[in-house]
Structures are given as structure tokens and as C-alpha cells.
Design goal:
alpha+beta, three-stranded antiparallel beta sheet, about 100 residues, 3 strands, single chain
């Protein structure tokens, strides 16, 4: 009977450790991916701001195609999915705020 209790306790502790470890790894990877996307969008927004400040881009919506054509950007890749962003993705300027939309 005592041997069964030791096996049960060991198995329970192992399951708890695996669950905690799994959730921790998921959270770390999720935060990392979020930061990668934030850095990429800030980079693209910065290039769109340059284009607007130099008066080469007009309006409140600047597409990636426009930035590619004017030489502000090379083809951009989503750092998480490793897929190219659509050329119709855009940076939207609302008042002093800029946001990157991937469609």
C-alpha cells in the first residue's frame, strides 16, 4: 500500500511540474512573439512617418506598396509566421497616432 502511495504522489508531482512548465513556456513564447510584432510594426510606422514628413506620401493611409515603390522599405516579412506582408497592408495616421494594419 505504501508503495502505491509513493507512486501516486510522484506521478501527481510530475503532472503538476509538467503543467506549470508548459504554461510558463507558452506565456514566454507568446510574449516574445508579441514583442517581435511590435518591433516590426514600429519599424514600418517609422518608415511611413519619414515618407509623410518628406511629403512623398500623401493622405492618412500609406500602403506597403507605396513604401516599396518609393524605396522606403524592402519586402517585409511577418517575424512570427515568416510570411510576406500583403502589399495592401497599410499605416493609418489618425491625429498624431499611427497604427499598422495587416488586413
Amino acid at each position: 500500500m505504501e508503495k502505491r502511495n509513493k507512486i501516486f504522489i510522484t506521478l501527481t508531482l510530475f503532472i503538476i511540474v509538467v503543467v506549470v512548465l508548459g504554461l510558463t513556456i507558452y506565456k514566454v513564447v507568446d510574449d516574445h512573439n508579441e514583442k517581435l510584432l511590435h518591433v516590426k510594426s514600429e519599424y514600418i510606422i517609422g518608415k511611413a512617418k519619414n515618407c509623410l514628413n518628406e511629403k512623398k506620401c500623401t493622405g492618412t493611409k500609406v500602403t506597403l506598396k507605396t513604401l516599396y515603390d518609393l524605396g522606403y522599405l524592402e519586402t517585409q516579412v511577418n517575424p512570427v509566421t515568416k510570411e510576406y506582408y500583403s502589399e495592401s497592408a497599410y499605416v493609418l495616421k489618425e491625429d498624431a497616432n499611427y497604427t499598422f494594419h495587416t488586413n
